[in-house]
């Protein structure tokens, strides 16, 4: 797969670069997380957006294959220690609720549903694309519930077309507002849902099946233009 041949449309209608986007760290190395009540979504949200405000940025970004300290906030991830899922398989883009999100590639609606529960995806859309003769799926999680109202399975979507919006909490799975964006080669029978976080013991499989979303997001940390 030659990712460089792709010409994706910007997810938020503008390029993400160091002028408008701050890289965020949710790994155990970030000791400031110890001071945040992650189980309190309002407090967690204030922590995230406080960083963006101080940096003068519209977006926060990070997460692909990041080992994270934030998942103990929800039983969605808290299984036996060996199976505990804490390695992020997508890219998170943190920004204000109700910001519009645009389809990066042309395709069709594969599936959608509201994945309810504290710490889950909330409203979720999966698109199916054909890239160089191969199926590729993209997942959009933590959306507005109303985004699901007008969708139909098989509905065509053009690159650059308005697809959905960043959801507010609690309807977005009770997270600080952000988009979880992820790529998959094979959905493994999943419908409107796919694991967005993996246990370390399963990482090799998921690294193979979930390519780096930055090939689509194309965050340019060296470009400061707004």
TrEMBL record:
It holds the Pfam family Peptidase_M23. Gene3D superfamilies: Glucose Permease (Domain IIA). GO terms for molecular function: metalloendopeptidase activity. It comes from the Bacteria. Residues 87-185 form the M23ase beta-sheet core domain. InterPro entries: Cell_wall_metabolism_enzyme, Dup_hybrid_motif, M23ase_b-sheet_dom. PANTHER family: MUREIN HYDROLASE ACTIVATOR ENVC (PTHR21666:SF270), PEPTIDASE-RELATED (PTHR21666). This is Peptidase M23-like protein.
């Amino acid at each position: 797969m030659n990712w460089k041949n792709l010409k994706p449309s910007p997810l938020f209608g503008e390029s993400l670069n160091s002028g408008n986007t701050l890289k965020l760290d949710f790994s155990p190395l970030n000791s400031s997380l110890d001071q945040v009540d992650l189980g309190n979504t309002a407090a967690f949200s204030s922590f995230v957006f406080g960083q963006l405000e101080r940096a003068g940025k519209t977006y926060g970004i990070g997460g692909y294959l990041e080992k994270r300290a934030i998942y103990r906030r929800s039983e969605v991830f808290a299984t036996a220690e060996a199976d505990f899922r804490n390695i992020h398989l997508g890219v998170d883009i943190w920004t204000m609720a109700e910001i519009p999100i645009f389809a990066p590639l042309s395709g069709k609606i594969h599936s959608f549903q509201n994945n309810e529960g504290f710490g889950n995806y909330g409203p979720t859309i999966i698109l199916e694309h054909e890239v160089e003769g191969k199926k590729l799926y993209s997942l959009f999680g933590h959306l507005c519930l109303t985004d699901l109202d007008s969708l139909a399975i098989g509905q065509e979507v053009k690159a650059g077309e308005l697809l959905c919006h960043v959801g507010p909490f609690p309807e977005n799975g009770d997270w600080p507002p952000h988009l979880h964006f992820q790529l998959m080669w094979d959905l493994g029978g999943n419908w409107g849902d796919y694991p967005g976080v993996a246990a370390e013991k399963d990482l090799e499989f998921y690294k193979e099946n979930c390519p780096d979303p930055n090939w689509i997001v194309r965050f340019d940390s060296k470009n400061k233009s707004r």
